[in-house]
Amino acid sequence: QVQLVESGGGLVQPGGSLRLSCVGSGFTSRYYTIGWFRQAPGKEREGVSCISTTDGSTLYADSVKGRFTISRDNAKNTVYLQMNSLKPEDTAVYYCAVDTTLWGILTLRRPDYDYWGQGTQVTVSS
To answer: 104-121 burial string, b = 16+ CB within 10 Å, else e?
Structure first.
């Protein structure tokens, strides 16, 4: 059974930084995609970024390009989301998710992901 555990959320001032971590376990394949999503109150869950274990390629939503960086540490089964220049509109619950069926294809479509973590709250406020 695949399990994902996020950490690293918190309260930060506008312009500040946070690094989220997602530790995974129970994978039976080497080829999959790890994604970060977020959901603000009253809004749909949206894809933020993803990384492929096939070749390390990455994809970002336009709203976070140039500010967020996704990376992975294979030895620790961990994916990180470094978030810089945070804005109040980045406030949301952040979830990591894994797509085990598309062999590492990059996607930010929520239905493509089959396992999800419990989420971590990120609040950007002065």
So the answer is: bbbbbebebbebbbebbe
Gap between the Cα atoms of 96 and 117, Å rounded = 6
Tokens of 70: 């996704």
Return d(Cα 83, Cα 19) in angstroms, integer. Answer: 6
pLDDT in tens, 78-115: 999 999 999 999 999 999 999 988 888 999 999 999 99
Tens of pLDDT, residues 1-31: 899 999 999 999 999 999 999 999 888 777 8
Residue 125 burial class via C-beta count within 10 angstroms: exposed 0-12, middle 13-18, buried 19 and up: exposed
CA distance 97 to 5: 10
Query: How many C-beta atoms lie closer than 10 Å to residue 4's C-beta?
Result: 20
11 and 121 Cβ atoms separated by less than 8 Å: no
Q: How many of the other CB atoms lie within 10 Å of CB of 29?
A: 12
